[in-house]
Amino acid sequence: HHTSNKISHQYISRMGKKDKKKKDPEKKAALAAKKEAKADKAAVKRLQKEQDRLNSLSIQDSDRDDGKPQKPQEESLDSILASFRQRTKELETAVQEPIDTSFPCPPRGNFTLTLCPTNGLFYMFGGEYYDGSENLVFDELLRWNPDFKADNNDEQEGANENISDSTDNNNNIDSYDTGKWTRILTPSPTPPPRCAHSAVFHNDGIYIFGGEMATAEKYHHYKDLWRLDVKKNTWEECKSRGGSPPAARSGHRAVAWRHYMIIFGGFQEELRADTRWFNDVHIFDFQTNIWCELKYNKLARLPPARSACNMTVCADALFIYGGYSKLKNANTGAGANKSEGITHIDCWMLPLKPLINASKSGPLSGASPPSWERISRKGEYPSQRAGTSAVLHKNKLLVFGGVLDSEGDQHKMESVFYDDLFALDMERRRWFAMRLKKASGGGRRRKKKDNQDDSKVENDGGNDSDNSEEEDEVPQNDAEAISSGWDFDKLRNDMFAFIDGNGNIVYEKIEDEDGEDDSNKIGEEEKTKEAPDLPTDATPVGKTVTREKKQVGVKNVDKIDASAVMQVDSKGLPSTVTRQTPLPRINCAVAIKGNTLYIYGGVVEVGDREVTLDDCWSIDLNKRDKWTCIWPGQMHKQVWKGVDDDDSYISSDQGGDDDEDSLDEDFELDPIHEDDVNNDEKMTEEERKKAKKAAKKAKEKEKRRGVRHEITELKEKLGVDNAQRTPQMGESVAEFYARTTEYWSVEAAKSAGVAAADSGERLSTKELAREGFLQAKKRYE
After folding, report:
1. Cβ atoms < 10 Å from Cβ of 201
2. What is the pLDDT of residue 482?
3. Residue 699: pLDDT over 50
4. DSSP H or E stretch at residue 702
5. DSSP β-bridge partners for residue 195
6. pTM of the model
7. Exposure check for the chain: N or C terminus, fewer CB within 10 A?
8. Contact at 8 Å (CB) between 100 and 161?
9. Greatest C-alpha distance within the chain
10. Which positions ≥6 away from 290 have C-beta within 8 Å?
11. How far separated are the first and last CA of the chain, in Å rounded?
């Protein structure tokens, strides 16, 4: 979903035939100059408007106490990030400062949230935010104290001064115990911006490895290792003193075990080579700064390569579960050389005891290689899904969320997102569904009667940690748990509105069961002039109710919508409503402190729209009777600039743009004729606006082509599947030829055979070698 820099020029189409008679050159020039001046004026207006609302639309907009919008900040997110990096370069010692919002803003995904056991604080680093047009990658270091309580109202108000107080839906900011977030500005050196990296804690240090930098200008995988000293708040790059460091990658997993860090899996995507998926295990010794790769017996059974799996260490054993990878189709017919996504559901265990007798020369010195063991699925296990998040709690791996993608009609991708919690007991090697417990009437745990249903066995939710997982003591049949995920229709109904890049409120167009969409009934509803009363705290039955005035371009469009997730408030803007449980999501941050599980952020997709969540929840694993909302998030304020399918949305055109504002300076215009001007004047306001918006959105669609999509196209165009005829990154012509001499000798012999048949002369060995080098050089260039 990353964008590229390619911007193609689009033509504005005009209806009717062009008059072929000769025009007056002076009049034609005057008309062209007038049109050009109008376009220039529109460009200046649009640039100024974009500068004014960049921050306000990029999550940072907020309302004042008087209900009027604040004046948008003058800096863009990119300039803020650049200023932040410049400040860190000039620092000699670390600086700590509170952030201006209750939670980090803008939201981000694929970051790391690491608990420091020595001070009980969480450290957040990196991440990315995608708004449908560009991808921002962060190098910001933040610290969170979830137990912090403000001493006075002034301090609390100061921390929340830029957050909208949504009193319409009873979401008063002061009612949330958000803790305290602190931004840490560290002196150089610092790790570059990245996402999808790994982080582990060891001996007062947080170790960051790998990750990726994915923006419109740059795509790069890292293989560097950094250590954050949590006492001094300084970074240090850990240079390897020997061994075999892992290749650059992202989406891998890392755990700390004894005085080692263990790396598994991940992927690496390059322009001139196929995407590589890893199943290797690399071990970093914190004491010696030496890397070592695990080697196995030739007949050893290994887990398939994957990224984004769940991994943990328990009782000197490494466990991995799930993940995602792509496998190239081996067929020779249609669809050959195309990759097919695989959602893994297997679980593996690797004993680590052979590594305990480590010496200074490496963790495998004198030790027999360990063997992977596949664990069968027992108990009530989760359904097939990818993008799950996991954390270790005692002897259990807690797994939350995920998504299942499947290809529907006309190769359309259909996704189901999940919001359930599971536990894998690694001692008994059995799965359990971690549902909320029913409220107990008091007293200790009741004994199970002979014919009593399992679901009626309750717990009073006391502090007895031995009874924290009720399902652990209740036998379950081995079967996949029944999960009611959120499909596309439910996601659209509950997340029905958003702000687009032009400042308009955009509504999802919901279709009836018979295929007729709501927009066809707008006229009927408008005749009633009555707004239906909709609940603000319950999931809607059926579809979202949508009402829109026929007139296009008015600022106050009469729409009333509500769901279990958001509603349109009294100001006509999307606003959140109180929820009792977290939304379904993928790739969220999960962390444990004591017996409390924290879930923060993640991503959910509504068709082509990607929503980066920033809400935060906790649950007491001893009681497990309810979810507690620490921060409801500002998801409803996000701006999505990737609206490219006009048939799927209804826009309020709330921005009230002038006609000339809708023109784009990058458009190429057809030659201007007098009849064209007359035809333009005959067009209605609505028709002109639709034509210009269609042309503009066609151009924006081209701009939103992702980097990965471009890489795939280039691979197919250049034919880089064969490594023998494809230069590697950073390889010179001589190095390329030396590595592939045998291949080019064969190619030279083939071409020489054709030449000999034509001329009757054969090339010498030296001439064949020269011909092979020339072909290799031509391929390299």
Report:
1. 17
2. 86
3. yes
4. helix 685-703
5. 212
6. 0.68
7. C
8. yes
9. 102
10. 240, 241, 242, 243, 284, 362
11. 30
